[in-house]
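Researcher: Here's a chain I'd like modeled. Treat it as a single chain, no partners, no ligands.
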Amino acid sequence: MNLTYLDSNSWLIEIDSKRILLDPWLVGDLVFGNQAWLFKSKKNNPQPIPENIDLILLSQGLEDHAHPPTLKKLDHNLPVVASPNAAKVVKELGYTNVTSLDHGESFKLGEQAEILAVPGSPVGPTLVENGYIIKGLESGKNIYYEPHGNHSDSLSEAAPIDVIITPLINLKLPLVGPVIKGQETALQVCKRLKPQVILATAAGGDVDVQGLIKTLLKADGTIEEFKQLLQQNNLATKAIDPQSGETIELALV
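Model: Modeled as a single isolated chain. Structure tokens:
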């Protein structure tokens, strides 16, 4: 299993000979609602668009998961698996092979991989987006991904999980609280799922962030502190803080 970090929430997942492009932001800036004064993130060293992609996987319909400039650039004939909200985005962009997954629904990628949608992050008062469990059908290894640190109680049914991709630090806004949850929520999900490896996402990468939100966001915790939490709780999970463009080859048992 190889995992390549492409900044923010973006990953290239290589599992059982399949290449899955997850929540890609690969071209242009990341802006919410065309409001650059509020938030604008720019890649310092943009990564090339990966070749030979088998599937695009989208967890949310927001721009940092379903990034319109990137999706406009990618091949519109590629199959897409997405949350219902993200499916609307790619369909409006002209993608022709889109599968929308509600929580509990699954999709088979050939005979090599299966993707199960699980409850993810609340977006607004009524909408809960997707997390995913990606399983290699030949190797039997699996990955759980949730980009904001909201972990459903139903995940316990999927234990054990080999690899988790989720935030490991908190990002907080005044009066709002954590918009990205890490540290304690990541520790609790490690206790429940007993992963061999957990990788940080969402808050990393080689990016330059500007705008009002940047001045208000406060980080709470560090990767090193999280590693100490794992040790203090007698968990054998290895925590990795991936670097931009780095491909991590995982030798799982």
